[in-house]
Amino acid sequence: MRREQSGAALLTAMIIVTLIASLAAGMVWQQYRAVQIEAADRARAQSAWILQGALDWARLILREDAQANRQKPVDHLGEPWAVPLAEARLSTFLASDRTEATSDEGPEAFLSGVIEDAQGRYNLRALAVGEQVSPLEQRVLERLCSQVNAPPGTAGVIIAGLRAAFPVPASGASSPDVAETGPLQPAGVDQLAWLGLDAETLQRLQPYVVLLPKLTPVNLNTAPREVIAALFDGVDLASAERLVQARKARPLQEVGDAATYLPANTQVDPARASVQSSYFLVTGRLRLDERQLEQRSLIERQGMNTVVLARERINQLIER
């Protein structure tokens, strides 16, 4: 009888110890998850504020550029806003002197960024205005798609999709904010996938096209040679490259200056080409441990003021 009672007591004690261990493990796990969630929320909030500060910095640079060019508004790649911010440790910006900047006490976070001229790209908005597509604008997109080796028919898909997403109202009717039928209205080039383009085609077109809220001319001081060659009839890549090389030594001061480097019969329309810009793309990247947070913003410069029109954040896991 005593042996049976001892065995039952031992079994009961083992069950109690197992229950206590399970409860303790569960409490530790919940505490661990709570700490992880709190740390993630804190890192997310800190990253958002840092990228917001980088965006405000970019807006300040653009404002100072407008102040410097008030007498002669010309935007080119030799200005301070066009210099990218190479990746640097965040403590470098927070340190009060070089000694503190080289210490290891700062956060393991790295910041980089770049300001790009959105008007250095071809604005697809020109394809979605008017009762019919302009033959000139259609040729521009077809030439650009050919130069980047996009699949045949890409220009037609883009034009048809944009015309369906941005319908032109009948004469006298008010323009609807959203089309009642057809595809959703894309807000940027990334969303052209809604029109039926694959990811590889979008990647090829990304550096050369943009979708802005309204019609804009192409800035010949910042546009790549592919965009310049596609913008004008009768201009090949060699002529466009000649203009790109010439503006490095002396940026264009007037739209008519481009005629010196283009073929003789080229018509440079001031409504389609310019030497100044109002729209800029600001990209800020924050690398923290194994993750990278990227923020892309579209900024419109209105005189001395800058307005953020769109903002997108992308959280990426860095592969090691």
UniProtKB/TrEMBL annotation:
Residue intervals of the T2SS protein K first SAM-like domain: 120-214
Location of the protein in the cell: Cell inner membrane
UniProt xrefs under Pfam families: T2SSK, T2SSK_1st
Keywords: Cell inner membrane, Cell membrane, Membrane, Protein transport, Transmembrane, Transmembrane helix, Transport
Domain of life, per lineage: Bacteria
Transmembrane helix as UniProt keyword: yes
TM segment ranges: 7-29
Domain T2SS protein K second SAM-like: 218-266
PANTHER family associated with the record: TYPE II SECRETION SYSTEM PROTEIN K, TYPE II SECRETION SYSTEM PROTEIN K-RELATED
Family: Belongs to the GSP K family.
Protein name from the UniProt record: Type II secretion system protein K
Organism the protein comes from: Pelomonas cellulosilytica
